[in-house]
Automatic annotation (TrEMBL):
PANTHER family the record matches: NADH DEHYDROGENASE [UBIQUINONE] 1 ALPHA SUBCOMPLEX ASSEMBLY FACTOR 3, NUCLEAR PROTEIN E3-3
Descriptive protein name: NADH dehydrogenase [ubiquinone] 1 alpha subcomplex assembly factor 3
Cellular component, GO, one term: mitochondrial inner membrane
Gene3D superfamilies: MTH938-like
Species this protein is from: Diplogelasinospora grovesii
Annotated GO biological process: mitochondrial respiratory chain complex I assembly
């Protein structure tokens, strides 16, 4: 009996480690398998967008695109209007920004920031030659040869409509060293206002016939 008990104890002592190892193996196999190569989780670093400023005027740039301010796109918005700019073209004359009015059927010559009465026609009250060309004597532009500095461009307003100028008239202006742009009077006045504001009254001059001009009768 004693021999049998001792043999049983020996068998238990021999099998106990084997059972323990089996438990450890089972425990190890029950753990989730990990991939052979693991990497650390990476997170994108985000920051709240901050408004930046433009260096030359320190204006804040908004997060969203603002509506277009066309007033700020006007490059000449802060430029003063010349006193000789034309406010109104009337049938028998002109009203200038300075408050000066040239009336009674007279034309206007605007040179160097000054306004002059201009009557390029003769007693017959005609400005168109037999060929249908606008033609006046060279003396009509004599003032441009007296002023200094001499304007670079003369804007010529021919009255209610545009027509070609004669070679003689074009030559007379060219000999003064002045370029010429030909328009009807309304558009000539508008062009003069723009260019005189942009470039200055010393560079741009205008010679304007009233919009109510009638050939052989004049403007009234």
């Amino acid at each position: 009996m004693a021999t049998t008990i001792q043999t049983s104890l020996r068998l238990l002592s021999r099998t106990a480690p084997t059972a323990s190892r089996a438990v450890r193996r089972t425990t190890q196999l029950s753990r989730p398998l990990l991939p052979l190569s693991t990497t650390r989780n990476r997170y994108l670093h985000t920051t709240t967008p901050r408004a930046t400023t433009i260096g030359h005027n320190n204006e804040t740039v908004p997060e969203q695109a603002p509506t277009t301010d066309f007033g700020r796109m006007d490059m000449l918005g802060q430029t003063p209007t010349p006193s000789t700019s034309v406010d109104v073209c009337m049938s028998d004359g002109f009203a200038l920004n300075s408050g000066t009015k040239i009336m009674d059927g007279n034309g206007a010559m605007l040179v160097g920031g000054e306004a002059f009465v201009w009557r390029p026609w003769g007693r017959d009250m005609r400005l168109v030659n037999k060929k249908g060309q606008w033609e006046v004597p060279a003396e009509a532009f004599g003032l441009l040869g007296l002023v200094w500095p001499k304007p670079d461009l003369l804007i010529l307003g021919l009255g209610p409509e545009i027509r070609p100028i004669s070679p003689a008239t074009r030559k007379a202006i060219s000999e003064l060293g002045v370029r010429v742009e030909i328009l009807d009077t309304r558009n000539a006045a508008s062009q003069f206002n723009l260019l005189a504001t942009e470039r200055g009254v010393d560079d741009v001059a205008a010679a304007l016939v009233p919009i109510g001009w009638v050939e052989g009768e004049g403007a009234a």
